[in-house]
Write a structure and sequence with these properties.
The protein has 237 residues and is of the alpha/beta class. The chain has one domain: P-loop containing nucleotide triphosphate hydrolases (Rossmann fold, 3-Layer(aba) Sandwich). Helices cover 32% and strands 25% of the residues. The chain is built from 7 helices and 10 strands. It has a 4-stranded antiparallel beta sheet with strand order 2-1-4-5. A 4-stranded mixed beta sheet has the order 8-3-9-10, sandwiched between helices. A two-stranded parallel sheet has the order 6-7. α3 packs parallel to α5. Bound molecules: adenosine-5'-diphosphate (ADP) and magnesium ion. The site of adenosine-5'-diphosphate has 13 residues, from β1, β2 and α1.
Length: 237
């Protein structure tokens, strides 16, 4: 039904937030299409709005105006409950600081979201996902018993286990040392290759990773941060 729709379609997305000094225009009319199977790196200086754009595209933040469509489904027209349900099944997110649930084992961190989705054999699938990221021997470890790289692998397994339409990652290697970060980046691209889905990611800290996406979408480096008027430009290559 939605086969021809881009995996991600942002249409004139604006985000204005209130601050003590008055309204701040964080996203000033962003339009961007990402096709199924594409990987896109979001590049820009600190404070240019990369995380904000990612949060809006992933449905975690509502834009002030504009449309956000994931695989043809308009997130901006969904109620809170259906958006939450849609996000759980169709959108995977990996954060810089892992965001695992500390009281759950690696296996539970991956399996519980699958259970919430009504997936049969959630624990069996979670085990397979963790084995796929090289953590088959760490299933019963709690996050505090895992290294940063291992925790991010669990987060990757958790994000990709429901086979989402889109996998977002916001500086997923930002808290890791260079070698570990490179391993996590490799894993991310391997998961993408496996799923053939789109992976927009913020690669500011990953010089190697920034070379690998099919496409980079950047915000002009000289925009006025204070007035918050980023002018997006995209380049293909
Ligand atoms: N809740 C908020 N209220 C007001 N301004 C915010 C809020 N969150 C972020 N900002 C501002 O939005 C801009 C973009 O932030 P962010 O998306 O985190 O940028 P990046 O990820 O590119 O570093 C920054 O100038 C930041 O100060
Ligand atoms: Mg950021």
């Amino acid at each position: 039904m939605h086969r021809a729709a881009p995996a991600i379609a942002l249409e004139d997305v604006r985000l204005t937030l209130a601050s003590a000094a008055g309204p701040v225009n964080i996203l000033a009319g962003i339009s961007l299409n990402v096709d199924a199977g594409e990987t896109v790196a979001l590049l820009g200086p600190s404070g240019s709005g990369k995380s904000s754009l990612l949060m809006v595209a992933a449905g975690l933040e509502s834009p002030t105006s504009g449309h956000v469509r994931i695989a043809g489904h308009d997130l901006t027209e969904m109620g809170e409950d259906s958006l939450a349900r849609f996000r759980r099944g169709q959108i995977g997110i990996v954060f810089q600081s892992f965001h695992l649930i500390p009281t759950m084992t690696a296996l539970e961190n991956v399996a519980v979201p699958l259970e919430l989705l009504g997936c049969g054999d959630a624990f069996g699938r979670a085990r397979a996902e963790l084995e796929a990221v090289g953590l088959g021997t760490r299933l019963d470890h709690y996050p505090a018993q895992l290294s940063g790289g291992e925790q991010q692998r669990v987060a990757l397994a958790r994000a990709s286990a429901p086979q989402p339409k889109v996998l977002f990652a916001d500086e997923p290697t930002g808290n890791l040392d260079g070698a570990t970060g490179a391993e996590v980046a490799d894993l991310l691209f391997a998961l993408h290759a496996r799923a053939n889905d789109a992976v927009p990611r913020d690669a500011r800290r990953g010089p190697g990773a920034a070379l690998r996406p099919h496409r980079a979408a950047g915000q002009r480096a000289h925009h006025q941060r204070r007035t918050g008027s980023p002018h997006p430009s995209t380049s293909s290559g």
